[in-house]
Each structure stands twice: as structure tokens, then as C-alpha cells.
Amino acid sequence: MRRVSTQLTSPRPATRRQRLAAFGRTPRGLLAGFVALHLAYIAALLPIIVTGGTEGDLPLYREWAQDAVQGSWPVIDFAWVYPAGALAPIVGPIVLGPFLYQLVWLVMIGAANWLALAALAGHRLQRRSGYRAAWYWLLSVLLLAPVSMLRLEGVVAPLAIAGLVWVARRPVVAGALIALATWIKVWPAAVAAAAVVVCRTRWRVALGGLAASAVIMLAVLLAGGREHLFSFLTIQDQRSPQLEAPVATPWVWATIWDMPGARIRQNYELATREVIGHGAMAAGALVGWLMIASFAAIAVLVVVARVRAAGASGRVGVAEGQLVVLGAFALTTALIVFNKVGSPQYMLWLSPLVAVGLLLDAQRWRTPAIWMAVTSFLTTLVFPIFYMALVRADPFAASLLLARNVLLVALFAWSVHALWRMARAPRRASAERGGALGLELERTGPAAR
Fold it and tell me: Distance between CA 390 and CA 383 in Å, rounded?
């Protein structure tokens, strides 16, 4: 007769991958990932830093900063492509001199990304429910290198994350952060619009935003920049569709197929490449009108969805967090899809919204998070890796760009469909589904950790 052993089977030892994943779910692991990512960037750029050089868009930024120090200020003395708030992150890094501009810039970007992590996972990284979103943000920064570290969006995106996360708990601060981000790059206006339409704290959000805007505008007016305060709205009106914009796709392929009149050209004034050909300028004007129309239609959807989310018992707060992020995402994708400009940093308009979406409802945002990660990777392949090939109308590079633009349209369609479903859902069902930003982030104790 076989003897039955009562000895317990020893558990299988954890694999290296399992141990690494477990470490990543600890505050020390998340901190290590943050530090490693930013030190890797500094190490990669060290040869440029020690010689006093700059990379990416920073040569232009440093030139503007040096001109400002010498008395010729963008916005104040001449029309500028950026809003006035962009002066702070562009001129600030010159504080230790032009030689260290690159290093100070990277430190500033690191501080901004730490703000994003503190918003998502708590200032001591104690909110374990935010780790998925925090790691996704670090992944986005990695996938969108070098754009994520060497352009203004590297400052703006973390401000948008913090503003969205704090919109219910610290509405005045959130409004100020979103307004500041909007005065650096315009796109966070979509976040502001969604927050004001949806949130019960809208008046305090608006108060913070108006206060921050008033400070910036007053500073420009007192400095004598009244004439150029809103020059960023009109300075690009006469440009052709940019090479990477979705609307430029037909003319990119027309150039590849050597069709009459179609070609890719350099715009020296704006330091970018554009497409020209029959109907290109008209298409650029058309998408401008489509952007306005889609923005208005999405705003109506958000309003209807908010009314539905109130439910029979008036429980607006249960769904407002999810609706703010989803509305902001739909509005922002509209700004990208229906735009004659299509720079790679535009992906940093969407990635922060996906990160906050994962914080609120990981199941709902899982698919768009994957799509967005692939979109970011394709964007980096297009620029900077295969960009010169694209300029030469290489079919492979153009195919990468086409795939990226198709994914952008898919993300836009997903967001509009999700809003449509929320707007048409029965009131009580809509209220029970949402994932409340305020409720999620105001929890304390073990359950929130």
C-alpha cells in the first residue's frame, strides 16, 4: 500500500520576472524606475551636456532665452508661435547660463514628471491603486523619447495630469495648473472645457484658471506686449498641411507616386516640412472647420452624458471623473485628427489622459492604452528614426506614418463611441458605472493603498 506523505509541497521559487514585477509594485520600485529613466536620459546626452551643447528643440529654445536675457522678449517684442506662459520653461533654464541650459532643462523635466507621479500615486508613492497609471506614464515618456524630454510638452503633460487628478479634491489648484499648461501649449484648453462642463467644482476650477490667466496676461500687458499677446492664434494661419498631419496623408502618397504638383517642402520660417499639391491648402482650411464642428459636437455629447450620469438620485459625482477624462480625450483627439499640423509631440497630448484614465477605470482604458502605446512607438519610428527617409518620400517610412495616423483616427472613434454610449445609457446605469475621480482620490486607509 502506497504511503501518503503529509509533508506540504514546497512553493515554486519566484522567477526573476515575477520578482521584478513585485518590486515594481513597491514605492521603492516605482522610485527606482523614475530615477533610472531620467538618469538614462542624462547619461545619453552627457557628451552634449559637458560640451555646453543642446539637442532637439532646445537650440531654438536657448536662442530665444538668450535673446530675452539681452532684452528682446518673445510675445513682448515680437509675435511668437507659443502662448506667453511658454516663456517660463524656455527662459528659466538659462538661469545658470547658456552652457548648462541642457542640464537645467532635463532637471526641470524630471521635476515635472515627479509631479505627475505624485499626483497619480501619492506624494509618498503610497497609493498602490495609482501604480498602473504611474508606470504607464513612465512608459510613455520612454516610448516618446527624445520628444518627451526635449520639447515643451514634457512640461505641459505632467501639469495636465496633476490638474486632472486634483480637479475634485483641489479644484482651485487644478484650475490654475490647467490654465498654466494652456498658456504654455494650447491643447489643455480641451481639459479645461471638459472640467468646466462636467465637474460640480467648476466654479472653483474656473476661479483657479482665471487667476492664473490674469497673472500671465497682466505681466505681458505691463511689459508692453499687448499687441502680441494672442499672436500664437494667427501666426500659423497661412501654412500648408504639415508632413505628419493625418490630413497630409494623400499628398504624402501622391509625392511617393510622383503625381503632378505634389511634393514635400521645407518651411524655413516655421522650421518644418509641409506637403503641397492640388487641394492641399483647401484641405488644411477644411479640417480647421471640421475641428470646430467636432469640438462643438463632442461638447454636446459631454453635456448630455453628464445629465445622464446624474441619474434619478442626482449622483453626478459617481461618474464625473470618468466623464471629464473621456471628454478631454475626445476633444483632444479631435484637435489632432482635424489639424493641419501634426508634430510628434502631439502624442504627449493624449498619453497623460490615458494615464489618468487607467487610474480611474483600468478595464475601460486597457484597449486605448495599448493602442496609444503602439501609436507612441510608431511616432518615434517616424521621428526621429525614419524622418529623413519620410522627407525623401520613402514608402516604408510613409507606411509607418500611415499606420500611426490610422491609430489616431481609431482612438478618436473609440472616444466618441464611448461618449455616445454614456450619453445614451439609462440614467441609473450611467451613474453606477463611472468611476469617480473625487471618490477615488479622496479615499484613505489600507483600501486606497
Answer: 9
C-alpha cell at 175: 484650475
Q: What is the pLDDT of residues 80-121, one digit of tens each?
A: 999 999 999 999 999 999 999 999 999 999 999 999 999 999
What confidence tens digit (pLDDT) does each residue in 206-256 have?
999 999 999 999 999 999 999 999 999 887 666 789 999 999 999 999 999
d(C-alpha 94, C-alpha 6), whole Å = 72
Cis peptide bond prior to 27, omega within 30° of 0: no
* Residue 417 grid coordinates: 463611441
Separation between Cα atoms, residue 376 and residue 353, nearest integer Å: 14
Q: How far from the centroid of its chain's Cα atoms is residue 212's Cα?
A: 20
Can you read off the three cell numbers belonging to residue 308?
445622464
The domain locations on the chain are 44-448
Show the 3-state SS of the chain. CCCCCCCCCCCCCCCHHHHHHHHHCCHHHHHHHHHHHHHHHHHHCHHHHHCCCCCCCHHHHHHHHHHHHCCCCECCCECCCCCHHHHHHHHHHHHHCHHHHHHHHHHHHHHHHHHHHHHHHCCCCCCHHHHHHHHHHHHHHHHCCCHHHHCCHHHHHHHHHHHHHCCCCCHHHHHHHHHHHHCCCCCCHHHHHHHHHHCCCHHHHHHHHHHHHHHHHHHHHHCCCHHHCCHHHCCCCCCCCECCCHHHHHHHHHHHCCCCCCEEEEECCCCEEEEECCCHHHHHHHHHHHHHHHHHHHHHHHHHHHHHHHCCCCCCHHHHHHHHHHHHHHHHHHHHHCCCCCCHHHHHHHHHHHHHHHHHCHHHHHHHHHHHHHHHHHHHHHHHHCHHHHHCCCHHHHHHHHHHHHHHHHHHHHHHHHHHHHHHCCHHHHHHHCCCHHHHHHCCCHHHC
Cell of 399: 507606411
Distance CA 253, CA 446 (A): 56
- CB of 309 closer than 8 Å to CB of 319: yes
Query: CA 58 → CA 61, 343, 386, distances in Å?
Result: 5, 16, 21
Q: 158 to each of 137, 187, 202, 356, 405, how far by Cα in Å?
A: 9, 13, 21, 11, 24
**Partner residues linked to 242 by β-bridges:** 274
Beta bridge partners of 275: 264
How many whole angstroms separate alpha carbon 28 and alpha carbon 105? 25
What global pTM score does this model have? 0.91
Rounded CA separation 56/220 (Å) = 28
